[in-house]
Each structure stands twice: as structure tokens, then as C-alpha cells.
Amino acid sequence: MSIPYNNPHPLKPAETYSEWSAAAPMKDRVRSWTRDIAIRGLAMGRRIERTNNWIRFPYYHHIFEDERRGFSGQLEYLKGFGDFIGLDAAAAMVAGGEAIDGRYFCVTFDDGFKSCMAGAVPILNAQNVPAAFYVVTSLVGKSFDPDDPIARDAFGFKGIDTSLEFLSWDDCRAMVAAGMTIGSHAENHHRLSGLTDNDAAGEMARSKSAIEQETGSTCLHFCAPYGIPNRDFDTQRHGDLAKEAGYLSFATGVRGPTRGGADPYALKRDQLLANWGAHQLKYFLSSE
Questions:
Q1: pLDDT, position 1
Q2: Which residue intervals of the chain are DSSP H helices?
Q3: Which listed residue, 2, 45, 233, 259, has the most CB atoms within 10 A of its CB?
């Protein structure tokens, strides 16, 4: 089954997180509020500076208009605890196998949503922070129908009478020109675990080729759709396929620090929302 793109009756693109999350069920909102209260308590006594010798990979999906101030504030906050490095440097540090001396942050974005171009890139440039954007190559330049259940499963869309747009190839080229990295989130947003090895390898190879052809920049990094090992992909098997395809890293959705000697084909990352407060960052980025 495929996601229906470019609805013949196009809806207004979502411009704010408030629009995007407007139709979230009340149970989800209550769960979010309860979770925030719990994390405020759990974050007491947590300190990012008490941990050391790692790379943390904070990752986002979107930076809407009403998230820009929060995103900028998060970058400023994290600068107090470590240095920001690009994905090429981070993957090389991990692959080197030596102990990592200090604290480093490597920012990435999943799915290739259009909001990242206007919302994230200017802030990243202003703060001299490199970042990588994993794009789904079959979706570049498109939008999808939020009423479709497959689209909701893939991207969590909850908006009312709004659509969600993806980056164009012009956007990707502008990102590369601005010093950002374009990585692959596969050709289609399918769970690798649901594909044959040949099909999974094809997803990796075709997306890599499309990115390199369209941007003129070598694509060296792959991110698994959905991101949970033993459910959405097999760490060993799909990591090996990514390596064979010419990728230097394979990113997951598993939280935690990445230390020297770790597997670059099983990078841990911490999902963040741009409007989260410091207590959320403290709690997640101080975990071992």
C-alpha cells in the first residue's frame, strides 16, 4: 500500500505546531501533560554535566513557526554542556573506536519536512551549528493527505484541514550550500523489517543515488524509518546492508549516549520537541 500524495483537493499546509497537533485525541493530550509532570520530578537532581565522554544525537522532525524560539533556546542551552559537530565528524569519531574525550552534540532531522527549511536552517546557521536532514526520496517535493490512515501511521499527522509538505530538491541543494548534510531515510518510508533483503537494499541504494544526483553531494548516512530495533529493522542485517550500499552510519531511534567503540551502524539518538523545556532536555540527555 502507498501513501496518497498531492491530494487533488489540496489543503492548507500546516504552519504551526498548534495546527499540526490540533486533532490529537484528548487521551494523547492527557498522557502528554502527565508525562511532562512526571519528567519535571524525575529531572530534579539530573545534570547533563555529570556525564561525559559521549556524543548525543538530538533529533527532531519539524520546526514550525511557533517552535522556532524554543528550538533556538534549546541550542543555546546545550551549548553550555558540549560542542556541536556535524554527522560526518560524529560518525568518524565513533568508527575510530577510540574513547571520546568530552561531550558532543550532533543534531539530525527525520522525514524531510518542509518546515525545517524556513524554521531550522536559519537558526542553525545563525548559531553556527551543523545538522543533518534525512529525507525520504520518493516524497521530496510532495505533500500527503492527512486523512489517510497509512500516512498517519507513517508520520503521526493530527492536523485539522491542513496538509504537511516535504522539502523540495531545491531546498535540499540550498541546505547543502548552507553547510548541512542530506542523509537517506530510504526511498519510501517502509519498515525495513517488512521487506526482503533485496528490497531493503534497493531502498537504500536508490535513495542514495537520488540524493547524490540531485544535490551533487555524496550521501554517506542512512536512518531507519520508524527506528526501533527488532521491530522496525534488524540491527545486524540491515546495518550490513547499509554498509554494503556505501553508507558510513546507520541511525536508530534508541535513546542514549554513543561512546567510543560503539557501532556506527547502530547510532543512538534522542528525539526532542523544539518547545520542550530545560527539564525535558536535562532528563533525556543525562541518561546513561
A1: 39
A2: 17-20, 26-43, 68-79, 87-96, 115-119, 121-126, 149-155, 169-177, 197-215, 235-245, 278-285
A3: 233
Residue 18 maps to a domain: no
pLDDT-derived band at 224, boundaries 50, 70, 90: very high
Window from 62-66, 89-93, 139-143 with minimum mean pLDDT: 139-143
pTM of the model: 0.94
Residue 181 belongs to domain with CATH number: 3.20.20.370
Rounded distance between C-alpha atoms, residue 103 and residue 164, angstroms = 35
> Is there a domain that residue 33 lies in?
no
Q: Domain for residue 5, yes or no?
A: no
Confirm whether 111 is domain-assigned.
yes
Q: Concatenated DSSP letters for 216-280? A: SS---EEE-SS--BTTTB-HHHHHHHHHHHT-SEEE-S--S-B-TT--TTSB--EE--TT--HHH
18 phi, psi to nearest 5 deg:
-60, -45
CA–CA gap between residue 151 and residue 123 (Å, rounded): 29
In which domain, by residue range, is 116 found? 51-285
